[in-house]
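FORM 12-B: Structure-to-Sequence Request
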């Protein structure tokens, strides 16, 4: 849905939450450096999703075309 640009903001926020939860639940092992790197990777991806959720998709997305057709 994010790739096509349909309901981008909602899906981006849901995926950000998913990345944060999985990072904290499954990768928080302070003794294992690789797991901590994976947790930080998940947090970085979540940050990207939060930015996408805040600003939404561009005019080339399905949401952008729908809002242009509606006159927004």
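FORM 12-B RESPONSE
SEQUENCE OUT:
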């Amino acid at each position: 849905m994010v790739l096509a640009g349909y309901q981008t903001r909602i899906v981006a926020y849901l995926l950000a939450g998913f990345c944060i939860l999985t990072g904290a639940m499954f990768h928080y092992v302070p003794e294992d450096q690789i797991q901590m790197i994976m947790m930080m990777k998940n947090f970085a991806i979540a940050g990207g999703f939060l930015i996408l959720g805040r600003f939404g998709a561009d005019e080339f997305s399905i949401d952008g075309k729908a809002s242009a057709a509606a006159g927004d």
